[in-house]
Write a structure and sequence with these properties.
- Residues 448-524 form the AMP-binding enzyme C-terminal domain.
- Residues 26-383, 686-1032, 1086-1152 form the AMP-dependent synthetase/ligase domain.
- The chain is α/β, with parallel strands linked by helices and 1204 residues long.
- It contains 37 helices and 53 strands.
- Among the domains are: 1-16 and 353-434, Luciferase, Domain 3 (Luciferase, domain 3), CATH 2.30.38; 451-648, ANL, C-terminal domain (GMP Synthetase, Chain A, domain 3); 681-686 and 706-827, Rossmann fold (3-Layer(aba) Sandwich); 1098-1201, Luciferase, domain 3.
Amino acid sequence: QYQQIIYDWNDTDKDYPSDKTIHQLFEEQVGKTPDDVAVIYEETKSTYKELNEKANRLANYLRQISDIKASTLVALCLDRSEYMLVAILAVLKAGGAYVPIDPSYPDDRIHYILTDTNTKLLLTNEIYGKKLSQVNTLSIIPLDNAILQQQLLLQSTVNLEIVTNSTDLMYVIYTSGTTGNPKGVMIEHRSIVNRIQWMNNVYPLNRSDKILQKTPYVFDVSVWELLWANCYGTCVVFAEPNGHKDTQYIRELVAKESITIVHFVPSMLSTLLEILESKGLSSGIMSKLRYVFCSGEALSLKQVKKFQELLPNVEIHNLYGPTEASVDVLSYDCNNKNIQTVLIGKAIQNTTLYVLDDNLNPVPISAVGELYIGGVGLARGYLNRADLTAEKFIANPFQTEEEKIYNKNTRLYKTGDLVRWLPDGNLEYIGRNDFQVKIRGYRIELGEIENALSSYDGIKQNVVIAKEHKNVEEGNKYLVGYYVSESKLNEENIISYLQKKLPEYMMPSVLVHLKELPLTINGKLDRKALPEPEFSSGDHYVAPRSEVEKQVCEIWANVLGLAIDVGIHDDFFSTEDKVIINKTVITNVEEQLLSFAQERLWFIEKYEEGTNAYNIPMIFKLSNDIKLDILEKSIGSVVARHEILRTLIKENNEEELGDKQYQQIIYDWNDTNIDYLNDKTIHQLFEEQVEGTPDNIAVIYEETKLTYRELNERANQLANYLKQIHDIKLDTLVVLCLGRSEYMLITILAVLKAGGAYVPIDPSYPNDRVKYILADTGTKLILTNEVHKSRLEEISKQQIEILAVDSGKMQKQLSLQLVNNPNAKVKSTDLAYVIYTSGTTGNPKGVMTEHIGVINLKYDMTNKLRVMDNEVILLFANYVFDTSVEQIILSLLNGHVLLLIPNQLWLDKEVFYHYLSTNNVTHMEISPKFLEQCDLSKISSLRRVIAGGEALTDNSYSKIISNSSCEIINSYGPTEVSITSIINIIGNNNIAIGKPIANISCYVLDNNLMPLPIGGIGELYIGGVGLARGYLNRPDLTAEKFIANPFQTEEEKIYNKNTRLYKTGDLVRWLPKLRDLYSDENFNLTIWDEYGPTEATVGTCNSKICLDKDLTIGKPYSNYRILVLDNNLMPLPIGGIGELYIGGVGLARGYLNRPDLTAEKFIANPFQTEEEKIYNKNTRLYKTGDLVRWLPDGNLEYIGRNDF
């Protein structure tokens, strides 16, 4: 038997890549599957290549700014997200070892860890920077900082030279310590390489697997959740921060993302099983799930049996292992239907196990002893704790001669866990032999809590123990703190004091005052004599007053196993116990509080699909002098008196807008603050980019190519000319009337550099619209093309100076100007442009946009869209639409190529595809209806497409993705909020308009400006840095549409931030969990803004086309002539896209007092028949501006507008 338990059962040797580091394994996998998805976080996905390049950029940056050597400790204080994994990989690639810190830790604990590690470098989120700046020698790097993200884009994406070996440190994780301070466990690369290779050998992954990462990264289970997937070619899905506490969310995430592998602490598993059982949910909702791994606390037989019943097609495995032995060292298959006991199993590869007595002698099979662990998984020891390392890591007295030769299995770790061998070589867990406990997977030294309690003034003695809830599933322990003092202390103050010293999971759930601690006959603490905690509010007891309150109180008493009366104000659990206990209580409430009569009424309502059988109609005749306020109070009193009038049967548990949801939708979901270069202007960032990439191509238009230097110098020459000849000051409005060409970009940049703001006019605009904009802006200068100059002189009656920027004379004058950047001293809060949008009065309105909002958009879109190197961005939008600004800044402010598309080229799809493919376009933004007609697979270089300008429907999305594998982004944003304010990088076919971008807040409000709950449809109001200054010369409309923000926080008031909201007129609703906004139909289509002008100038015929929701407009009415013509007024064949012309008896006479516009829009009909000429019929056609095509069945299909 000695041979068996010491040597045979420890014969676990197996080859593994013992000379490799974790990041080497990851890099090898990147080479195998570069384009496979490696990470999913919310709606963001990153491939192996993208993840590796991000980590390489950060690793290179870390090496540049700090002297990172092998095993250098780098602290991380990050929320769960893709940044977390990027940071871990980057630290390892740079040569360091990471030290994870939970941002929710108390300041004292964080300060201790930073001091103990003596780290000089900390990677964090911006919001935690101030909290962590307490260590003066610390260099803090906020990973989500916009400036840093820009710096990282300049770093190399190539794998770094390896400076570490497998015996160097990989991480240091801090666990609870008996002294009152946590202790840092030092783990080497080879230990984790062995651990995850074992897992992949026993539970092999395939490329379709998805592993859920939900364990906080300060606990070592997170290590295999994070790295098993990415070292063996599958995908890791991140839960949202704090999502690991919400079992319902986890269940929904597993189903939504088709997750196949997940870890549960047994107590959390119980809650999942309870939810599945109580709601009658079948295992089909998690049909892709393959493996569930449990560890962290004892897994019971009852839990396993329930699991097998509810999830019969999923494997469950019990794992065991301390942090000091690299996560897990034993495993046990719990899938035998006849299982009688849940064991911790057998050793994993290259691990040895010994069950010893107090004298380090092996105990026989079935005898209880302490577990000692040996092998390659052992930690190096405790950081800066040589004494504790020597105590817990001892020399291995059972090392074989061969092991001595190869210096293997030299040490053992003393676990403190009591176990026993079973005859088949499995181990059974018995319990602890010290005062360490595990609660919900957290390993806790009770002594650390006792030390914190003893430091509180007035507490003489104390003891902390773990107890179990009586009527809750096994494993649901909670902590009770017993303290001795002269008199009962204010326990709320004690809890507040402890919260500053201990993490949340170590907080006692209840405190009990004692006059003295009970002792045994020999003077030791008698733990069995400690009284049961009482959860009642004592002197503040208030009895239940109604039947409902009585039922709820009884449920609480039953769940907690209380013999006392429960009052309505009793507060039982103030910390993490709420997660488990509240789920159990809620389940009971849901099952018990609906009466049979109520259920019957609900059933009848559902069965008859709406019935008024139980409605009692009453009619009251009101006199003219009725006091409505008194009537309202009277009705309110009746409603308040009768519960039934305030009763609602909720079919969806997420409908309430309580304090938590109010906090969520008003503040949490609007916590979008991210620092960026808010003192910069558009042209300043362009000039900085020119310095970085002077010889890169900036602009391509047909055969013309300009480098960044050439574009900048030509813009500078024009800007210097404008400053010399014209008195351009800050916010001076300069009108542009330009065709699509490189001159358009040169002129825009020149106006900004000179200090002005540009006002774009389309040369195809009717004369009256041009005249109105010129008068409204009061401009003194128009920059145009030579071909449009004479028309503009006629419209302006030569009262405005007009310069043709492409004329030979002007080009000669400009060649004499300096090419240096002018210094106009423009601020980010000065105007950048005024874009005119359609108005309900018939006249357009000028939206005044400042630089600051555009710069914010540039930084956030660059980060969110992961704009990479060598991008070619298509300028598709007409420059009179603000989408053009987004396309310009994403390219020219990031060093990419901006490709201008020639006019009308998009009408011939094959020519369109060829032009984009030839120029290697990677990014474009086009309306969904146009995209539907495109075969995006013919543009092989395309990486992403933004669908914007109008609602993206399910039908549209299905058509777009049917022939494309590129990334699709849904975007939303009115011109009044600096182009784009909400985006959704579409995943899992969720076509919601998405979440607000950085520094933008969104509110869904009713007519009284009150927030609506998740799912409630209301009007969207937008706040933040992107808001326009207002409407030019329209203070009335500005006041109506831009209102004071009633939700501004006190901090925002101090810094004068988020002061206003823009009233969009769009109906939306929040989606649960995803925090996405979903747009409903509304009579304010963003592609045309408002219908007023269209109705004012076209009449009902064109309105019929505009308002039709379907792509197929239909067949023409009788007595109407419908023609689809090209630019030469030639008819197009079936399937050909052209402009829609309408003729017939319904045509308007024209425009009142507008002969010019009438002549432009109502043309002579070149297809009039001889008979029609005789009877003077069908003499004219109306030019709609709409692009359509004939379908084979005679219907017309709407494509878009002919005014891009």
